[in-house]
Design brief:
single chain; 252 residues; alpha/beta; TIM Barrel; eleven-stranded mixed sheet; disordered N terminus; disordered C terminus
């Protein structure tokens, strides 16, 4: 969904996917509300939000802002998720700007396929936290997702890393969801992820495969020789520094 720059705010529509007024799992250490944008160009087989990958439920952007405002007393920020929120560039940027005016921090969960939207959010100083989901080694991206999108995801990664280094992005993290049989791709994926970036190894959970345990994810992390965060349904989130060293528990 796109809009010309001449359209006024009241004309901006959101293909709406849902709203959670209070979440403690979508942004580490913060109570936030979460806005889900409907629609996504990829069809990840493990997606937890398949019901909003497609379909239409158009709402005025100001009605979404009213939801955020109603939740404001209980939250310190708002997270934009999906689907893929960056598909709806003008609506996302408008809502992010208005959320900042409310005094809220803003976060984004994204697959990185729309770097121009990410760039616009950063340029407008209306995004504080970005979690980028990297889904495969670059060589396998097009086949895995069914889209020729490697250039776009690489650009999103570069934009976010540079913005954080320059102080224009408060927090940036790369999330890699691991499934059995695909962990050998990890060393290739992380080559372009700077040491200063938080790297999260997330337990992939689907009925068809046995999920990695926390201990197994630690074994995988040991090969990387860098601090990572490990997320599992059983143990929540921990900071893991390698070789079973200090572990700091957290919530996911």
């Amino acid at each position: 969904m796109s809009h010309t720059s001449t359209e006024v705010a009241s004309d901006i529509l959101v293909n709406f996917g849902g709203f959670v007024p209070l979440s403690t799992v979508d942004w580490r250490g913060r109570s936030v509300c979460t806005v889900f944008f409907r629609g996504c160009p990829v069809r990840c087989w493990y997606c937890q939000n398949k019901e909003i990958q497609t379909g239409t439920d158009e709402r005025r952007a100001d009605s979404i802002l009213a939801m955020i405002q109603d939740a404001q007393l209980l939250i310190s920020g708002v997270v934009f998720s999906g689907g893929e929120a960056t598909m709806q560039r003008d609506a996302l940027v408008y809502i992010a700007k208005e959320s900042k005016k409310m005094g809220l921090l803003t976060g984004l969960h994204t697959n990185g396929l729309y770097p121009e939207t990410i760039d616009l959010l950063i340029q407008n100083k209306c995004i504080d936290h970005i979690a980028l989901d990297i889904k495969a080694r670059w060589e396998n991206y097009s086949n895995r997702l069914g889209l020729d999108c490697v250039t776009e995801v690489k650009r999103s990664l570069s934009l976010c890393q540079n913005a954080m280094a320059q102080g224009n992005l408060l927090e940036f993290e790369v999330v890699i969801t691991l499934f059995r049989g695909y962990d050998d791709e990890l060393s290739s994926i992380i080559r372009d992820v700077r040491e200063s970036v938080s790297l999260i190894l997330q337990q992939g959970v689907v009925p068809e495969l046995s999920a990695f345990s926390e201990e197994e994810l630690m074994d995988i992390a040991d090969r990387m020789k860098r601090t990572v965060r490990i997320r599992t349904r059983e143990g929540g989130e921990i900071v893991y520094e390698g070789n079973r060293n200090r572990r700091t528990t957290g919530k996911w």
